Amino acid sequence: MSYTIATFYKFIFLPEYTEKKQLLLKFCQDHSIKGTILLSQEGINATIAGIPEDIQATINYLKKDNYFLDLDVKYSTSSYLPFKRMKVRLKKEIVTLGMTDIDPEQQVGTYVAPENWNNILEDKEIIVIDTRNIYEIAIGTFKGAINPNTHFFREFPDYVRNYLNPNKHKKVAMFCTGGIRCEKASSYLLKKGFKEVFHLKGGVLNYLKNISKSQSLWQGECFVFDERVAVQHKLEKGNYKMCKGCGYPLLNKSDLFDCSEKNNSCPHCDSSLNIKERL
Questions:
Q1: Structure confidence by residue, pLDDT tens digits, 103-113
Q2: If both were cysteines, with which of 23, 242, 247, 271 could 275 make a disulfide (CB 3.0 to 4.6 Å apart)?
């Protein structure tokens, strides 16, 4: 059986977001949908999976709500359900930057379509920053992209304060997995006085889906927050497994052996790097 995975988000003021939780949860459970939906006053952020007709019914249900009429959904497929349960969570932010005065609905950087992204990467006047976290970057990134060495997205403002200057760095481009972190990061940079800020529309997933491998400047695989662990071009399942102890993506066979049910650990296992807590 083939399952459809739907990923979507939208920054929009949701004054009644708490009331939507139970309605969404019940609809998803009634349609055997698995995954996670985050709701906050600033919008919605979700990745869900199910059989194609149930996913389509769920998206149709969401789009009946005026807040989500123009919801942009990215689809991929899997031979198995990559989630074990359905969760709808209420959050302060749908992606945590730790700053409530950043509003991508009001101010955001310039979107760059996947087919134009290579031009950004090859422009020497533009610095390109990978806004994802270190364990994501470890298994794949764009050629020449800067690694800010963050463990959490909320550390990104510290990176900006310490390493970026709007008077020196005239053009900044960013990318992330699905686009949501970059929308917020670009809004933050504009607020801090950076003039020309670009970000990859739809994130790495959109790039890998639409750009052929022969034209791609992506190196490695792309970490995803479900049991597929990582995807490749055309969003095909990657080769990584996940440590049952810390959740770190593993490729080396000896590491996978150490990460067996019996040992339940890998070379990356450490109390300061528990990825599972972030999923």
A1: 999 999 999 99
A2: 247
